[in-house]
Amino acid sequence: MISRDAHHMSQAVRIARRGLGLAWPNPAVGAIVVAPTGEIVGRGWTAPGGRPHAEAIALERAGSRAKGSTLYVTLEPCAHEGGRGAPCSRVIIGAGVGRVVIGIPDPDPRTAGRGIEQMRSAGIEVIDGVCAAQAASVTFGHLMRVTEGRPAVTLKLAVGSDGRVPQGDGEPVWITGPEARAHGHLLRAMNDAILVGRGTVAADNPSLTCRLPGMSCRSPVRAVLDSRLRTPPDAALFDDLMVPVWLLCAAGEPHPNADLLHDHGAEIVPVPVDDCGMIDVQDALETLACRGITRVLIEGGPSVADAFLDADLVDEAVIYQGANPVGEQGLAALGGDGLDRFAKNSHFTVIASRAFGEDRMTRWRRMRTCSLELSAA
Predict the structure, then answer these.
(1) Which candidate in 61, 234, 274, 342 could, as Cys together with 42 as Cys, close a disulfide (CB 3.0–4.6 Å)?
(2) pLDDT tens digits for 56-84?
(3) pTM
(4) 348-356/359-366 β-pairing
(5) To 5 degrees, how large is the angle CA 188–CA 225–CA 331?
């Protein structure tokens, strides 16, 4: 039974990933309904915008076959009122499910064990902690938002063989090939927001959308650190107004360009500043979290990358290294240390590495020592 539970929970984790980048402000959750015969009679993952929840979708698809079934769900079913529809714990009870297998408990104080308690009180057998590390990984952004008040942060950076970053002159400059760039677009699709500094907008004039075939609808919110609101209104960011643009500016200061940028499609988001009048990156992340963002991809230049690394706010880093050097005209990456900044940092470890043609991608993860759920991620 344990191996069967692990098998079905692994399936639930895989389908939960389909909601990454789309489910915010709710977590991406996967659910599978298995009849007493062993047949899978319902599958579901969190719908875009966070509703309906995975459990409700899976049980609706199962219909009457859900009675006496086992429900596998990556995160503890919600127990709080006030949202659209009944809490998932009540939906599960009403469907006559006989057994529920959970990946990890939900630390959200509105649920935090109440979902499990309600189901057990209704006579449902509940088992939790199955494939907890896998379930925590796919739910990591939600865990960070609830427990630390910020989204999970992935830093993405492309460097040449000499570890330097190419400079744009009003348009992007590529140091990696199309395969590596396509993988980077997939990262965009799996995050709620992509964040850059105003300098990147000025140097590269990027659109910051997901341009994989058939996946433009998965483009994340484009967030720009622009304390003085100097983003030009003709920037490529505003060419596609179906994808939100949030300009994070200094709170409490006059911004003469605010109305003009708003008219071009930007949402102006004030953020507290530090003693030097600069946006504090911790405050920027907390502001994004308050707006529902659970996963953010940092694609800014070296100065933005350094700011988040110096503040110890990077959870993962995805570094693409091209086969050719950038040269002296490029920018020094990661405080001038290049990839050594991760290699010599005991807080990070390599979790994946692969080639894209002549390019190499290395994925680093920060080793955490906090709650069980977060350390498992």
Answers:
(1) 61
(2) 999 999 999 999 999 999 999 999 876 56
(3) 0.92
(4) antiparallel
(5) 80
